[in-house]
Amino acid sequence: MRLMFLGDVVGKAGRRAVCDRLPGLVDDLGLDFVVVNAENAAGGFGITEEIAQDLIDAGADALTLGNHSWDQREALVFIERQPRLLRPANYPKGTPGKGANLYVAKNGARVLVVSVMGRIYMDPLDDPFAVAEREIAACPLAEQADAIILDVHAEATSEKQAMAHHFDGRVSLVIGTHTHVPTADWQILSGGTAFQSDAGMCGDYDSVIGMEKDEPINRFTTKIGRSRFEPAAGEATLCGLVVEVDEATGLATRAEPIRLGGRLAQTLPRF
Fold first, then answer.
1. Partners of residue 208 on adjacent β-strands
2. Host H or E run for residue 260
3. First-to-last C-alpha distance (Å) of the chain
4. What is the mean pLDDT of residues 112-137?
5. Percent of the chain whose predicted confidence (pLDDT) is above 90
6. What are the extents of the domains in the chain?
7. Where are the beta strands (DSSP E) in 58-172?
């Protein structure tokens, strides 16, 4: 079984890269299940119902969010009727939506997707380790789930690495999001879990983490905000990780990055 996770989609440029390329990639790479982090898809801040549907129509089987979940206020409402959209599971009790869900992949496999948000340099939410433990224990790998994908939306690499080692052997993939820069540490851990500290972003890399350069530079140099942050509008790089999973165990057998379009070095999985 082949899974693909795409990093944070930033603005129209990121959406265009995903919507234009994803349908072909599903066919060309034989992808059974695709997860896209979409928390920056609407002008760099949050997601709308229309954009969520566009990404699903393009081939995303599940969409995850993060600290920008509610920047578009309509998300508080439509997340309740859109089961393919997940916000972090460690938001407080009573928050709209779900943080984990079990889906059926194109090959008929059952795929559990769990979203959590880290706490280092982030909002002080519930313990992401305990919440992820709760969701994974309720739907164990190779029992109720044929594959498990854990999206850790976090600033600190150490927190994401610790999460991966904590769940090594119990999930198919632990993937970091949020920093918008792809890391070079994709690997399969000793217990069989694929891991990458950050999947990067689907966005224009001629930017400051996806935003037009002038205003971030201005704020760093003057400490005075002059205008809103705006997503960079150049050609985006589609960026993520492709993982092959053993259908008997749910553990990873191969993991390689994917980068297409834009400024970054291009790469496709060699399997």
1. 211
2. strand 252-260
3. 12
4. 97
5. 100
6. 2-260
7. 62-64, 85-86, 100-104, 110-117, 147-153
Residue owning tokens 């599903």? 26
Q: What beta strand segments (E) does 105-220 contain?
A: 110-117, 147-153, 173-177, 187-188, 194-196, 201-202
Instruction: Identify the bridge partners of residue 86 per DSSP, sorted by sequence position.
Output: 64
* Dist CA 260 CA 24 (whole Å): 12
Q: Is 165 in the active site?
A: no
Active-site residue, from 68, 153, 178, 180: 68
User: Nearest Cα to 153, choosing from 123, 130, 112?
Assistant: 123
- Per DSSP, helices labelled H in 29-156 are 49-58, 75-78, 128-137
CA 177/CA 58 separation, integer angstroms: 21
The predicted model scores a pTM of 0.97
Confidence of residue 42 (pLDDT cuts 50, 70, 90): very high
Architecture label for domain 2-260: 4-Layer Sandwich (3.60)
Residue given tokens 């690499």 in the structure block: 157
pLDDT tens-digit series, residues 65-97? 999 999 999 999 999 999 999 999 999 999 999
| CA distances, 49 to each of 52, 85, 87, 253 (Å) | 5, 10, 14, 35
